[in-house]
Specification:
By secondary structure, this protein is mainly α. It has one domain. Helices cover 46% and strands 5% of the residues. A two-stranded antiparallel sheet has the order 1-2. Helix 2 runs antiparallel to helix 5. The longest helix has 21 residues. It is elongated. The two termini are 37 Å apart.
Length: 116
């Protein structure tokens, strides 16, 4: 009976090669893709909420009224849901529901993987 020897790189080296390490390129790419996809869903009156985005490992809207808009916006603005647009409350969940598959595909392409 013959022997089979499998030599594998350490986990961290494999993750680093695919940019999947903590705070790596894949995380930054995913964050920027989500911000791009969510932008049409964010309510706009003067545009300050859309412009207040802080990116890094997460997306943060840095205005005093961002939380209230996220939970209570009625979608009556210019791009609002009630006027034929997409802007309104809980924009991240709605953006993911509409575009999540495309985001997953783009991140898979970025890291050199495939979507099942």
């Amino acid at each position: 009976m013959g022997k089979v020897r499998i030599k594998m790189n350490p986990t961290q080296k494999i993750l680093l090669k695919r940019s999947l390490n903590k705070n790596g390129g894949a995380q930054k790419f995913f964050t920027s893709e989500m911000q791009r996809v969510m932008n049409p869903y964010v309510p706009v009156l003067g545009g300050d909420l859309r412009k207040s985005v802080i990116r890094g490992n997460c997306i943060e809207y840095n205005t005093p009224y961002a939380r209230r808009q996220f939970y209570e916006n009625q979608g009556n603005g210019l791009d609002g849901m009630n006027n034929g647009g997409r802007a309104g409350a809980q924009w991240s969940q709605r953006a993911w529901a509409d575009n999540g598959d495309a985001v997953v595909e783009s991140v898979a392409d970025y890291v050199g993987g495939k979507v099942k």
